[in-house]
Amino acid sequence: MARSYKEIMNDITTFIFDIDGVLTDGSVFVTNEGEILRTMNIRDGYALKAAVESGYNVCVISGGSNEGVRVRLRNLGITDIHLGTPDKVETYKEYIELYNIQPEQVMYMGDDIPDYHVMQLVGLPVCPQDASPEIKAISKYISHKKGGKGAAREVIEQVMKVQDKWTLYFDGKLD
Ligand SMILES: [Mg+2]
């Protein structure tokens, strides 16, 4: 019998996130100078930081490149930040090999076609509520929240709760 997503969550040691449409709502704000700005969610950030501090592997793989995003993610304690990635599958394979991670231990959250192939390689492919239909079709869990609006928070919290690692007492710094 196929395992439920809750059962698979017991084995997760590693969270991998796409950025646009997952850690952001997919919108970009373009200034007159052509600079592109994104918004990110503080509650998502809190959960990402909690996961890092609790010893989970946290990795971000994005086709886009934005140095501001890198700074933000570094400040949350994330060290594995892959921006401007042409081939997510290749980056994923290198990452799990480097840390000796098994695919069954990986939760990957993506929202669109560039995530399709890599999501088929992981134990727990998940997506935000507003992901593309193709991605929803291959996800083992669809968040009740949208990308950039708490979807990452929801799945991190669920995994950590299943493993009794979610606690209210982190250092309280949210940014
Ligand atoms: Mg995306």
TrEMBL record:
Q: What protein does this entry describe?
A: HAD-IIIA family hydrolase
Write the lineage as a comma-separated list.
Bacteria, Pseudomonadati, Bacteroidota, Flavobacteriia, Flavobacteriales
Give the originating organism. Flavobacterium nackdongense
Q: What's the short name of a Pfam family annotated to this entry?
A: Hydrolase_3
The record's listing under Gene3D superfamilies reads:
HAD superfamily/HAD-like (3.40.50.1000)
The annotated subunit structure for this chain is:
Homotetramer.
Molecular function (Gene Ontology), one example: hydrolase activity, acting on ester bonds
Domain of life of the native organism: Bacteria
Q: What family does the entry list? A: Belongs to the KdsC family.
Q: Where does Mg(2+) bind?
A: 18, 111
Keyword set for this entry? Hydrolase, Magnesium, Metal-binding
**Entry binding sites for substrate:** 20
Cofactor names:
Mg(2+)
Entries under InterPro entries matching the protein: CMP-NeuNAc_synthase, HAD-like_sf, HAD-SF_hydro_IIIA, HAD_sf, KdsC_fam
